[in-house]
Design brief:
The chain is α/β, with parallel strands linked by helices. The protein has two helices and five strands; from the N terminus they run βαβαβββ. The N and C termini lie far apart (35 Å).
């Protein structure tokens, strides 16, 4: 078997590489912080983001697409919104675009 040029998909059972808790702050500030964090993610590294501003649902995906990372999980709970992001394009992708794999 030849080595793959794409990283292995992140293991969602393991803790994320990074965590960003933006509950209680506006979407614009949190998106700025997410953009900085995802720019530093290596392919396969995982970032978990918590937020409370509903604008994240529409404003976050374009930021992820610009940085070539994937949205693995998104959902809403009692405390707000949770997003799990992975650095690098989806395995087998020809170009880096955001891909929503599943909803919570």
């Amino acid at each position: 078997m030849q080595p793959s040029s794409h990283p292995e998909p992140p293991d969602l059972e393991r803790p994320p590489s990074s965590f960003l808790d933006g509950r209680g702050v506006g979407a614009a500030w949190l998106i700025l912080k997410v953009a900085q964090a995802v720019a530093a993610l290596a392919p396969g590294q995982v970032l978990e983001v918590l937020g409370s501003d509903p604008r994240l649902l529409s404003d976050l995906p374009p930021v992820l697409a610009r940085h070539g990372c994937r949205l693995l999980v998104s959902g809403q709970g009692q405390d707000g919104y949770r997003f799990v992001l992975a650095g690098g394009p989806a395995p087998g992708a020809d170009h880096p675009h955001c891909k929503e794999d599943e909803d919570v």
